[in-house]
Amino acid sequence: MKLASAYGLPLQTPQTSDIEALAAEILQALKYRVGKDATVATQYDWLTAAILVVRDRIIDHWVKSTKQAYEQSAKRVYYLSLEFLIGRLMRDAFSNLGMMEDMRAALGSLGVELDVIATLEPDAALGNGGLGRLAACFMESMATVDVPAHGYGIRYANGMFRQEISDGWQVELPETWLDHGNPWEFERRERSFEVGFGGTVEQVAAKDGRLERHVWRPQERVLAVAYDTPVVGWRGNRVNTLRLWAGMPVDPILLDAFNAGDHIGALRESNKADALSRVLYPADSSPAGQELRLRQEYFFTTASLQDIIQRHLSQYGELHSLPEKAAIHLNDTHPSVAVAELMRLLMDVHGIDFDTAWGITKGTFAYTNHTLLPEALESWPVPLFERLLPRHMQIVYAINAQLLHEARTTGQFDGEQIARISLIEENGERRVRMGNLAFAGSHSINGVSALHTELMKETVFADLHRLYPSRINNKTNGITQRRWLFQCNAGLTGLIREAIGDRFLDDIAALTELDAFAGDAAFREKFAAVKRANKARLASIVAERQGIKLDPSALFDIQIKRIHEYKRQLLNIIEAVALYDQIRSHPERDWMPRVKFLGGKAAPSYHNAKLIIKLANDVARVINRDPAVRGLLKVVFTPNYNVSLAEVMMPAADLSEQISTAGMEASGTGNMKFALNGALTIGTLDGANVEIREHVGADNIFIFGLTAQEVAERRNGGYAPRGVIETSPELSQALAAISSGVFSPDDPNRYRDLISGLYDHDWFMVAADFDAYAATQRQVDAVWGDSPDWNARAIRNVARMGWFSSDRTIRQYAREIWNVPA
User: Where does this protein have coiled-coil stretches (predicted)?
Assistant: First the structure.
């Protein structure tokens, strides 16, 4: 029996290709590579053996892709990101190679269920939210559209954290995803690079007495060791590399100190190195946390740049051609110290003069900005930066001198504007502005939605945009449909194939053919059955993990994302309280049954975000236990939201909550995943919601609230939220209930400050948008009550979301920024 892939993909590999032989390979891997006999193998052993068998096939494609790029002298893309939220890789790889059903059959013949062992694979703890998941989607799409690429990041041993909820509060625990090893990765000890911190900078003179170069002599040294993971594109046509760096000491143990009895001090250097790749986003509320964050960012950027330069020199022998052969992309501001580091390497290590090095640097780097929040652009106190990276501080000052000279000579800028362009913040504590450094050192700066890009030009980079008006461009984010439709929603994928054939599997633009089926009653019924099955699966998980019984026929209203005040989970919770009051006060009305799901992690030091999680759980406890509600409303906070949970929740959603304060969400990608899986969006005109409305049609999305311009006008015009609250009976009653302790009888004052903030300033326009949000939710109820209409709108969402594929986004990056074919 020949291997028949899930999508008809023939395998071109040296391995034999019948199910019996494939099962034999699994047994062989189990015995000789895992070291277990089938009679004593655990489910984890079977998982590892199955991965290793498929990994062998991936390696064939990987070697071929790497050799081909070298032989063709192809320009490579190097994607630097502090996060890669890759999730579980088994289904991704099996599916993209077309081996899913064959592996299922082979494992089944051995008495092993693929779906069971797949759940044992841990989510790699390499990211937190949308930024890291976007990077993962981009890596898969680069391989799919045949762009030679390396991703570079940190191999976090514990990542962000594993979230547990105890008495409603978030508890942060280590995410031990490497407990059973990682069969996908390859340790590359030969690709180790030294990373320095602190120390002094010396000037080395030439024989004629002129200054020749600078030499940085770091006080501390650690090693960055590479771990490679293959990233498989669709159909296996290309396999790219995700290279993650782990921190290791130059000297693992100080024997003199150990033998002298100082056992802790002997391991001090080892512990400091280990800390660099231990935790994602150490809390930066303390000086020690800030220092570790800066160390991490420099650690992975210098290791990545040294690796890139070494690869380039081995092939081309010189560095002047770097912009023609390498495109280095900075995913957000975290890796922006790379601008100063590349300058240091070019000048101090390879002897290139400043002006030439600056031209090479700008020609090589591109930068994606993901936020308009000033605090997220990152800036570092000058004393900290100078102490850790003394040579880089000199280089930043040199770049700044040239930048400010260029700005002054144009005659377009006054003193205040020049100060905003500067790489050094001079108001109050002097700080290095990393966003400005990334902008100055890149030939391209892109936003991630049309609205975000225009706001960049008008706000955070307004003066730099005037100085360099051709650099800012837009590249609206996208998602990979392989994971976010084909893999996570097999029922819907099968239904689409039945309706329009298989062309959309390779050309997602063909999904538009599904539009014609929105008016087909029989298709709508099948679509509704798939959605109900997905909802039943989610309900089963919630019942098992949280003991909450849910009705899959209720409207599943879902908001899952990082907990932040601008994302306005608080608005959602307040509306739940108001709805709860209305259901109890007006039992005669025909209320639509609804389940409100919330999920996401709050940064450990973000007090209000953690308080919002507690409020969600307090509100859920009261509402879910009140018999007066008659099961018409339930609230569920899902702990430890991650990629694997998202893959269950996205297909189960009826309503997607995208309700951020307009002008503050750069793009969002959850909005795209929900819509692709047949959820209708309720949201503000923020981020990519603007473009989603353009594509799905205004009748197939629920838009409410202030626009970005209106938000800015209110903030600048003396907005008085107290008056708004007092004229809204529903809002006033809900806020009074929360503030007075109705949902926190054990601590009546728990939410007083949180709610008083809405009366005092309401920066995120929760009160300003509440009435519009509540009214739009009642419109949602009305449409939900007409099932054929709702399902028709949901089908149109699926059909019209093909443009939001990350394949389209990557082709635009390749053509318009990186100058590589795709």
Answer: none
